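Dear support,

I submitted the protein below through the web form. The confirmation email said the job was done, but the results page showed an empty box. After a refresh the structure appeared. I'm attaching both so you can tell me whether what I see now is the final result or a partial one.
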Amino acid sequence: MSERPPALLVLADGTVFRGRAFGARGRRSGEVVFNTSMTGYQEIATDPSYRGQIVTMTYPHIGNYGVNDLDVEAERPWIEGMVVRELAPIASNYRSTMDLDAWFAERGVIGIEGVDTRRLTRRLRIAGAINGVLATDTDDVDALVAEAKALPSMAGMDLVSGVTCKEAYGWDQPWPAPFDRRPDGLGDDPDPDRRYRVVAMDFGIKRNILRSLVTFGLDPHVVPATTSAEEILALEPDGVFLSNGPGDPAAVTYAIETIRGLLDKVPIFGICLGHQLLALAAGAETWKLKFGHRGANHPVRDHASGRIEITSQNHGFVVDEGSLEGTGFLPSHTNLNDMTNAGMASADRRAFAVQYHPEACPGPHDAQHLFHRFRRLIQGAPATTLSA
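What the results page shows now:
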C-alpha cells in the first residue's frame, strides 16, 4: 500500500486532501459528495445518478469483499472518482471475481485512499457539496484550485441526456435466486399470475430496478428520456415508470413536458429524479439541498401507515412540499433526518412517487412493497390508500 503513487483531492474553496492513488491514473473533476452506506461501493460506482460527482465513502474500510459481475447497475461506472479512508489490501468473498483497485483501473475510475474522510464529510456538511478535482498527474495545488473554481454548478445542469439509453429495449430478467427480495404479505393481488406492460423512462435507470419490476410481474420496456408522450401512449402501456437519474430536474425540460402529457392518462410511479420530474410536470417546484441525501440508512415516515422505513437514497435536489398545493398531489412521505418531502401521491391522477430507491441496491428491503403498490395501482386500486 505504501508504494502507491500520491494523489490529491482539491476543493474549490482551496481545501486540499492528500492521499494515495488507486484504480486508474489521471485527473477527474466534479461535485464532491458523501455516501453513508457501509456496503455497496460497486453499485454506487455504476449508478448513473452519480454522473458528474466524486463520491466520498464515509465507511472507513472499502473494497474488502471485492467486486463481481452481478452487482453492477450499468455497463460502466458513472462516478467521476471515489475517496476512501482505507482501501482493503485483501478482497475476500465467495462471489468476488476481482479487487476494487484492479476493477477501477480497467474501467478508468480514479480513486484516492488515505484521506481523512471524517474531516472531508464535516467540510461538506458545513459548506455544502462543493466542486473539486481529483488528480494523480500533478502536485500543482494552485492550478487544481483554479480548475475546481471554474467548474459549473450542478444547479441548472441537464445530465440525463448523457446517461439515458440511445434506443428502446426490453428487459425480462428477474432477481436471480437467492436474491429475490419480494416481501411476504402481498396477498391482496386479485390476479397474481397476470403480467403487465410498463414503459420505463430511462433518466439513468439501474438494472436492479428493472429486475425488481420483473419480479413483481411488471414487464418493462425501457425508452430514452427524450421519448414523447405520444410515442409512449402508442405503446399502450399498462403503466409508466419514471426512473432515477443525475443532475437538476428543472433542467430536464423535455422529460417534464412528456410526463405532463402522460399525467391523467396512465398510472405512473416515479422514484428519485422521476419523483422530482413528476412534481415539476404537475406544477410544483424543486430546490437544491445543501449536501444531499446519499446512503442506505435514511429514515422515512409513511404518512398513511405511520410506519418508519429505512431507505436507500441518492439525490441532491428535493421537491418543495409547499408547492404541491393545487397540483392534485398530497405529500405521502417525510425524510426524518431533515423533514424534507420524500413522497407524494394523487388518487385522482393515478400517480405516486418517492424520493428514494425502493429496489435498495445497496440498502435494506423496507420499501420493496412499492413495486407491488405500482402493480395494484395498474389494477385499479387508488394511489393514496394502497396497503403495503
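Response: this is the final, complete result; the empty box was a page-load delay. The mean pLDDT is 95.
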